[in-house]
């Protein structure tokens, strides 16, 4: 059933055209800028933003996840340009695994940042405790472990396929629909919908707790608004279209009543949504600047080679820190 759209001659292969031309361009852009930006972010955190606090550790792990994804994209670019996968079944599964590991790892890292800010603002007496490195380490270990449990079953579902004497590294949603249907739904609900609800709940309570603090401090109000909008944009613009189209893609393959043109149209929209999910790496670069402690100063110093031997120290939280200042953890 997964090959229905490939065998039909009654409708133009618009999905194949988009896959051959759109994906290589988008993946090349994401790979270059994602690698350079996140590699630079890791260097800045390692060289200039020490000692780390909990949020810094989460940011570094988020950058590492994005680096893993960026490094996997050149293989996909080669595949979509030539139409032939030459690296074997293991690398096919590993490559697809990297995309989903980054996707759901990024979702959980952003969720952790939201929860940490919620604790600091709504429960300010615990702010000093939540800043400690051990909480960042524990959160990151949990994210990597949970992401591995979420994505692990996918390794057995991704396969190679032969078409016109060419080897195809088939995307997860284009595999056997009977096998991936329920797993895809479970992954969507627990890997995306549940974290989205947690993020919305956290920022709703943060906004309520800040109250008059924001109204007295316009820069802080703007910073809070930008951080909130940025994370919600990532969840809605990058992740939501992909999850919707993945469900529709698998459903179109399992439903024999879907016409060839409908199936190809859904597949084309699904292909368009995949790089959108990868664009979260760009938004994460903006997140480092907005949420990272002194990240802008460190970046400027690094680029201009000024003060390269010095390390920017994190300022310890004073007792009279305002609620808006606590958002910087």
Folded structure, characterized:
- By secondary structure, the protein is mainly alpha-helical.
- The chain has one domain: Rhodopsin 7-helix transmembrane proteins (Rhopdopsin 7-helix transmembrane proteins, Up-down Bundle).
- The chain has helices at 4-7, 14-47, 54-82, 88-122, 127-130, 133-151, 177-210, 212-215, 218-254, 260-278, 280-291, 295-303, and strands at 160-163, 166-169.
- Helix 2 (14-47) packs parallel to helix 10 (260-278).
- The N and C termini lie far apart (50 Å).
- The model is unreliable at 1-8 and 306-320 (pLDDT under 50).
- Keywords: Cell membrane, G-protein coupled receptor, Membrane, Receptor, Transducer, Transmembrane, Transmembrane helix.
Q: Could you outline the blueprint of secondary structure elements for this entry?
A:
Layout: H1 4-7, H2 14-47, H3 54-82, H4 88-122, H5 127-130, H6 133-151, E1 160-163, E2 166-169, H7 177-210, H8 212-215, H9 218-254, H10 260-278, H11 280-291, H12 295-303
Antiparallel strand pairs: 1-2
Helix pairs in contact: 2-3, 2-10, 2-11, 3-4, 3-6, 3-11, 4-6, 4-7, 7-9, 9-10, 9-11
């Amino acid at each position: 059933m997964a090959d229905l759209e490939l065998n039909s001659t009654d409708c133009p292969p618009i999905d194949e055209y988009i896959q051959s031309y759109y994906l290589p361009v988008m993946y090349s852009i994401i790979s270059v800028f994602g690698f350079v930006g996140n590699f630079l972010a890791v260097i800045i955190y390692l060289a200039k933003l020490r000692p780390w606090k909990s949020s810094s550790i989460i940011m570094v792990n988020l950058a590492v996840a994005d680096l893993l994804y960026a490094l996997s994209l050149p293989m996909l670019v080669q595949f979509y340009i030539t139409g032939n996968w030459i690296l074997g079944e293991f690398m096919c599964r590993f490559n697809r695994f990297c995309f989903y590991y980054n996707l759901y790892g990024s979702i959980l890292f952003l969720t952790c940042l939201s929860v940490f800010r919620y604790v600091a603002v709504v429960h300010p007496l615990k702010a000093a405790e939540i800043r400690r490195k051990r909480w960042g380490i524990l959160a990151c270990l949990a994210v990597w472990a949970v992401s591995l449990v979420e994505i692990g079953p996918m390794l057995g579902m991704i396969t190679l396929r032969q078409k016109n004497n060419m080897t195809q590294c088939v995307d997860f949603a284009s595999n056997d629909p009977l096998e991936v249907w329920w797993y895809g739904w479970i992954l969507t609900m627990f890997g995306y919908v549940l974290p989205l609800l947690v993020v919305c709940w956290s920022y709703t309570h943060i906004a309520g707790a800040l109250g008059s603090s924001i109204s007295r401090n316009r820069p802080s109000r703007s910073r809070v608004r930008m951080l909130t909008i940025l994370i919600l944009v990532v969840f809605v613009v990058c992740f939501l279209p992909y999850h919707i189209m993945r469900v529709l893609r698998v459903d179109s393959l399992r439903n024999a009543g879907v016409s060839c043109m409908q199936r190809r149209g859904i597949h084309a929209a699904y292909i368009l949504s995949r790089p959108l999910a990868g664009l979260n790496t760009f938004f994460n670069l903006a997140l480092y600047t907005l949420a990272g402690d002194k990240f802008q100063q460190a970046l400027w110093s690094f680029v201009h080679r000024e003060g390269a031997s010095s390390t920017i120290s994190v300022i310890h939280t004073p007792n009279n820190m305002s609620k808006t200042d606590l958002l910087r953890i």
